[in-house]
């Protein structure tokens, strides 16, 4: 009879031969034949029960080690640009081992979330445990879930935090990562989708207490994959940066530039100065200077700072924090145009005629020294005759000339007719305890419009200059609405008693005329919302397709390089075009221009979604103490499953589920955006005034559930305020508008 090897001998052999660890291979290695195989099978089973080995199909392996071939999930590049991967399956104790993925030249590129089948090699003496080389790509990462873990007797479940996602996920006992009950976790789908029962997932990261102060923005940062930790190499570059010398720069430190920003602004990347033009041929004209922080001097092509700035694409702004595109050393110090400190800039000198039209411009790489860092409110107070001690000395030389130039640009703006939407912006104030202190709408001053108009002029000048120099750049593109969206807007307008021109090339002046007709009427907000929804989303592109909303032929972002990568590209293009230095647009920048445009357009949308989700969650938290209260609002959206209401007080959006509106069937008209009651005739449409009761507020998802009490001043069908014994017929504002239009026609005929 053959000698059966000891358990230690079997384990040693498996460790040395991980690729050939089937029972047949083990028997052959130890010369075991015939009936002795039964004893070998018994020993292997004991080892498996003891957890020393793990059966994988027909082979055995050490569960504390990865097999020679394994499925991996690719992670994001680390701070040094190395690509690591996580094993899809890991049954060993403790965290999964670090696996360095080593791509070969010419192989298909892999990205974060990709799954690959890879050859695994164990290594020693490194900061990682294994190295992996691609065998083949298996596809993208499975579904990811962010939610609250609820512990069960065995394993548990995850309640997703995404608004509208009511499907829970089951977590097996060995896949909880020791998460605590109520903890915020990230998980991924485990195994194939199932037809019956809840889907299964495994927890891959624990994120802490979701109710902790300031956790709301952290949830959005993680949920949307916004990078919020700078690589060591980028920080090192920022820390080593020195203030740019005057050198060949144009010295503009004698000019009284000022920055005008929100009162809580931490970085100041634009400054301006204006004065009357002394050219007798340009009677009533003005000279406007706009100086923008010279970020390109510090963030050079293909540097660690550049790679990270491009990866982020833009800064992301939350009520309680900012995730900046650049480290604080640059964004808040060297690149910020602080009062009384010399700072390098790229400046544009613009000559405006008496009607505020730009007739010429020139660019300079320069040095300025801001005389004051002002905020919008104090500048407006000064303009209105109530200057504070800081502004009183600057009224004649600085503030008054700025407003004089702005008044001229208003004439040019009126001739250009950019889209003039009236959509107030919310301001959420966070207290020191991390909770919402107040919710209000931001004030809009002429000081805001002044800076906006000067920045638009500077952006136009940058685009025109680079077109003249025939240098590549990224245009800010905004295309006109699609015919389908225009038809939908036209239907809303006509139903409200107004008209939108048809059969001619659409211009913003047509839309402004419509908005002007609705101004001051009950349809004002309805038409503003509907017009906004008809618009396409602006994006970046190397080709110039114009900017419809601003009514401009050429437009590029130039004025915010601290917070937008697109502006940094435009700065580099200007440097290259004027031969101002070696830190201009590189050949690699030019080659990647289209890819960069797509990427930063996506990061912009990502930030907008994260900011919107965070605002919704903060508003839900703010309103959670007022469940049961009544609120006035206006219907802002209609869907098959209900309607959305924007509350007047906070601007928060909540859902009225269709099942709660009345005891009848509602017909949904997608083109007209209405719900019509089959029995009552109640028509629910965008823009109608409603009174609602807050039924539920869920801070962790940002969801608000509302109960309809009144619509256009009348009770809902079957509601407490509806009259008994009578069929309640309701006409929304749009229907009343049709009646009013018919009445006006009748009266004209009688005359």
TrEMBL record:
Biased composition (Basic residues): 741-751
SMART domains for the chain: RNB, S1
A Pfam family: RNB
Subcellular location: Cytoplasm
S1 motif domain ranges (all copies): 628-709
Reactions it catalyzes: Exonucleolytic cleavage in the 3'- to 5'-direction to yield nucleoside 5'-phosphates
Keyword Hydrolase (UniProt): yes
Gene3D superfamilies (alphabetical): Nucleic acid-binding proteins (2.40.50.140)
UniProt entry keywords in alphabetical sequence: Cytoplasm, Exonuclease, Hydrolase, Nuclease, RNA-binding
Family: Belongs to the RNR ribonuclease family. RNase R subfamily.
Purpose: 3'-5' exoribonuclease that releases 5'-nucleoside monophosphates and is involved in maturation of structured RNAs.
Name of the protein this chain belongs to: Ribonuclease R
Organism from which the protein derives: Albidovulum marisflavi
């Amino acid at each position: 009879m053959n000698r059966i090897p000891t358990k230690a001998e079997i384990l040693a052999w498996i460790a040395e031969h991980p690729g050939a660890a089937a029972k047949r291979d083990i028997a052959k290695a130890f010369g075991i034949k015939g009936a002795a195989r039964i004893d070998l099978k018994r020993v292997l089973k004991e080892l498996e029960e003891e957890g020393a080995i793990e059966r994988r199909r027909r082979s055995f392996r050490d569960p504390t080690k990865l097999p020679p071939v394994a499925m991996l999930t690719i992670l994001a590049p680390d701070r040094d640009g190395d690509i690591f991967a996580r094993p899809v399956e890991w049954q060993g104790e403790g965290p999964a081992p670090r696996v360095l993925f080593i791509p070969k030249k010419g192989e298909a590129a892999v990205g974060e979330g990709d799954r690959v089948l890879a050859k695994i090699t164990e290594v020693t003496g490194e900061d990682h445990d294994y190295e992996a080389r691609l065998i083949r790509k298996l596809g993208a990462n499975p579904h990811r879930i962010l939610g609250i873990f609820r512990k069960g007797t065995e394993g548990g479940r995850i309640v997703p935090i995404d608004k509208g996602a009511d499907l829970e996920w089951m977590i097996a006992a060995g896949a909880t990562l020791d998460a605590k009950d109520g903890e915020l976790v990230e998980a991924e789908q485990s195994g194939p989708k199932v037809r019956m029962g809840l889907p299964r997932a495994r927890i891959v990261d624990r994120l802490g207490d979701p109710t902790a102060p300031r956790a709301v923005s952290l949830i959005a940062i993680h949920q949307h994959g916004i990078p919020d930790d700078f690589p060591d190499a980028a920080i090192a570059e920022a820390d080593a940066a020195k203030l740019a010398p005057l050198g060949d720069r144009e010295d503009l430190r004698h000019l009284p530039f000022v920055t005008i920003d929100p009162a809580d602004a931490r970085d100041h990347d634009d400054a301006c100065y204006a004065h009357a033009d002394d050219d007798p041929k340009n009677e009533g004209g003005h000279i406007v200077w706009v100086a923008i922080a010279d970020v390109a001097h510090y963030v050079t092509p293909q540097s660690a700072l550049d790679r990270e700035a491009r990866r982020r694409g833009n800064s992301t702004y939350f009520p309680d924090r900012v995730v900046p595109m650049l480290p604080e050393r640059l964004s808040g110090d060297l690149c910020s145009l602080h009062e009384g400190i010399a700072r390098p800039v790229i400046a544009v000198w613009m000559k405006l005629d008496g009607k505020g039209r730009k007739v010429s411009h020139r660019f300079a790489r320069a040095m300025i020294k801001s005389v004051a860092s002002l905020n919008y409110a104090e500048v407006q107070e000064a303009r209105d005759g109530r200057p504070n001690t800081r502004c009183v000395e600057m009224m004649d030389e600085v503030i008054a000339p700025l407003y004089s130039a702005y008044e001229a640009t208003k004439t040019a703006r009126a001739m250009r007719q950019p889209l003039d939407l009236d959509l107030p912006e919310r301001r959420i104030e966070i207290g020191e305890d991390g909770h919402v202190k107040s919710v209000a709408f931001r004030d809009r001053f002429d000081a805001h419009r002044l800076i906006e108009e000067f920045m638009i002029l500077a952006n136009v000048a940058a685009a025109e200059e680079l077109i003249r120099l025939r240098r590549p750049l990224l245009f800010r593109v905004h295309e006109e609405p699609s015919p389908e969206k225009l038809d939908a807007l036209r239907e809303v307008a006509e139903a409200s008693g107004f008209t939108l021109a048809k059969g001619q090339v659409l211009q913003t002046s047509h839309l402004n005329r419509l908005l002007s007709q609705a101004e001051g009427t009950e349809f004002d907000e309805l038409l503003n919302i509907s017009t906004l929804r008809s618009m396409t989303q602006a994006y970046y592109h190397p080709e110039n397709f114009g900017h419809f909303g601003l009514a401009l032929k050429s437009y590029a972002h130039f004025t915010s390089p601290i917070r937008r990568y697109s502006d940094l590209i435009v700065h580099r293009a200007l440097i290259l075009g004027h031969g101002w230095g070696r830190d201009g647009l590189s050949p690699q920048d030019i080659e990647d221009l289209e890819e960069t445009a797509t990427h930063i357009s996506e990061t912009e949308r990502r930030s907008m979604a994260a900011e919107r989700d965070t605002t919704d969650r903060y508003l839900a938290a703010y309103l959670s103490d007022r469940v049961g209260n009544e609120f006035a609002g206006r219907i802002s959206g209609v869907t098959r499953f209900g309607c959305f209401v924007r509350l007047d007080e906070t601007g928060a959006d909540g859902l009225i589920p269709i099942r709660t509106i009345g005891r009848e069937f509602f017909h949904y008209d997608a083109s007209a955006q209405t719900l019509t009651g089959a029995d009552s005739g109640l028509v629910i449409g965008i823009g109608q005034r409603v009174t609602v009761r807050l039924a539920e507020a869920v801070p962790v998802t940002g969801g608000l559930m509302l109960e309809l009490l009144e619509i256009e001043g009348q009770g809902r069908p079957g509601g407490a305020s509806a009259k008994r014994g009578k069929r309640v017929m309701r006409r929304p504002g749009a229907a009343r508008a049709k009646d009013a239009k018919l009445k006006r026609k009748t009266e004209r005929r009688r005359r």
